[in-house]
Write a structure and sequence with these properties.
Layout: H1 5-17, E1 22-24, H2 25-30, H3 35-43, E2 47-51, E3 54-57, H4 66-74, E4 85-86, H5 88-95, E5 105-109, E6 121-125, E7 133-136, E8 139-142, H6 144-152, H7 158-170, H8 176-181, H9 186-208
Parallel strand pairs: 5-6
Antiparallel strand pairs: 1-3, 2-3, 4-5, 7-8
Length: about 210
């Protein structure tokens, strides 16, 4: 049964609200808007055209990380399901760990992901389990622990890794014991051990003072 215009608008708002005001052409169709109606709303200024097949409700309140929502929607598969998870250096900024300012957005995608890497993006291919991921409005991000494991196994400097891990430990986002025992690659283990050693030394200096 065809929805009435108000019902269409409510459905579209419900979809867009979960994505920071953004929605795809396919989602608009799902809400009851034919392509001709989509063109009408764009031409009238009700919807902002962000990219091919991607729109934003004009009056939806702005969010903090709309760039990550757009990247998530960019990564959707043929069924419309986003594949990318914000990770590595970019996940550090989401969790406010350390002081890294990445020039490009880091995303982890499944091994079978085939979309061309656009400028400004770094894709890491891996299979993430549900315990590795947190949901935010409109996108997903690796947990603080998974993020530290990823950057420990990346070119990120030891200094930046130490600062990020120290922030996570001090805020209780990860625990010392977990960092000591969590399975990881040999390179990541070596670098995490340096983190833990530096943390212990810092504690001894605080006590001595």
């Amino acid at each position: 049964m065809r929805r009435d215009p108000q019902g269409n608008a409510r459905m579209l708002y419900y979809i867009a609200a979960a994505q920071g005001g953004y929605f795809t052409a396919a989602q608009a169709r799902q809400a009851g808007y034919a392509y001709s109606q989509q063109h009408f709303h764009v031409s009238r200024g009700n919807w902002l055209k962000i990219d091919r097949g991607l729109f934003r409700l004009r009056d939806f309140p702005p969010g903090e990380r709309e760039d990550l929502i757009r990247w998530s929607l960019w990564s959707r598969n043929q069924k419309g399901v986003p594949q990318a998870v914000v990770s590595h250096d970019t996940a550090l900024t989401v969790h406010e760990l350390g002081d890294v300012m990445p020039a490009r957005v880091h995303l982890t995608v499944p091994p079978g992901f085939r979309k061309k890497v656009p400028p400004g993006c770094v894709l890491h291919k891996a299979t993430l389990v549900p315990e590795d991921v947190e949901s935010r409005t409109g996108y997903r991000v690796t947990t603080p622990l998974r993020t530290l494991l990823d950057v420990a196994d990346s070119p990120l400097s030891q200094e930046h890794l130490n600062k990020a891990a120290r922030d996570a430990l001090e805020r209780g986002l990860v625990r010392h014991r977990l960092l000591e025992t969590v399975p990881c690659t040999p390179d990541a283990r070596r670098r995490l051990d340096q983190v833990l050693t530096a943390t212990r030394q810092g504690r001894r200096m605080e006590f001595a003072a």
